[in-house]
Write a structure and sequence with these properties.
There is one protein chain. The protein is α+β, with helices and mostly antiparallel strands and 242 residues long. Among the domains are: 35-133, Sandwich (Immunoglobulin-like); 199-242. 33% of the residues lie in helices and 25% in strands. It has helices spanning 3-33, 175-182, 196-205, 212-241, and strands at residues 40-47, 50-57, 64-73, 76-80, 85-88, 94-99, 107-116, 119-125, 132-133. The strands form two sheets. Strands 3, 4, 5, 7, 8 and 9 form a six-stranded antiparallel beta sheet that branches. Strands 1-2-6 form a three-stranded antiparallel beta sheet, with no helix packed on it.
């Protein structure tokens, strides 16, 4: 075999290997970007006091997928939860939620259907044969009281004790106090006031009776008569000496 033939054969082999490697690489990349059921996961969670069923799509190819959730009963679909939702996944994951007040230990079937063009990529359930079982504890409402909010319940009073009203706290005087106050030396009593008879007797003793004016008038008249008599007597005596 000539040198040129050997070189040509070797070149053909190298081209064949390269083509095969390229085909394998393209096949692997196509498989990696294809939508499959392993890209989907489901969970039962709580949104506050309400329950939800969440489905996460981590399909990096972003093929739209239709998600449908069913509540199971004795291995059969009992009812559909809400309406079906379409999700377009990503490498980081995209999540859709179905509002459902699930009960502990309930079983749900989540079905995924993805179509690309005319090719059906996925048409099966997540965790087929096992389905989704909710936690043993249901979602609970938050009953805690916010900090700083006063309680509406008044403080309890120990049994057997009562709190008197404010207006009755001041002690009222007892009957004995009233008696002692009325019998005090400085307090005037009705018996100490002079009666009308006593006032008249006092006036009689001091001469201030109703006849006092008459006596004074008679006495004045006698004084005038006596003075006149003395005056006339002295005039007569003087005229006799002349």
């Amino acid at each position: 075999m000539s040198l040129s033939r050997r070189i040509a054969a070797r070149s053909v082999r190298m081209l064949g290997v390269t083509a095969a490697a390229s085909a394998l690489a393209l096949s692997a990349s196509g498989t990696a970007l294809a939508c499959e059921i392993g890209d989907f996961s489901a969970a039962a969670a709580c949104d506050g006091a309400k329950g939800v069923i969440t489905v996460t799509d981590k399909d990096a190819s972003g093929v739209p997928a239709v998600i449908t959730v069913f509540l199971e009963n004795n291995g059969a679909d009992f009812r559909q939860v809400g309406t079906e939702q379409t999700v377009k996944g990503s490498k980081k994951g995209v999540t859709v939620s179905f509002a459902e007040d699930w009960e502990p230990g309930a079983i749900y079937r989540i079905h995924v259907k993805a179509v690309k063009g005319e090719k059906l990529l996925v048409d099966t359930d997540i965790n087929a044969g096992e389905n989704l079982t909710t936690p043993a504890k249901a979602c609970a409402a938050d009953t805690s009281t916010p900090t700083g909010t006063p309680s509406s319940t008044p403080p309890s009073t120990p049994s057997g004790t009562t709190t008197p009203p404010a207006e009755t706290a001041t002690a009222l005087p007892s009957p004995s106090d009233s008696t002692s106050d009325s019998s005090a030396p400085g307090a005037p009593s009705a018996s100490n006031a002079p009666s009308a008879a006593v006032q008249e007797s006092n006036l009689a003793e001091t001469g201030a009776s109703s006849s006092t004016g008459l006596i004074v008038g008679v006495a004045g008249a006698l004084v005038v008569v006596g003075g006149g008599a003395v005056f006339f007597g002295m005039r007569r005596r003087g005229s006799s000496h002349r």
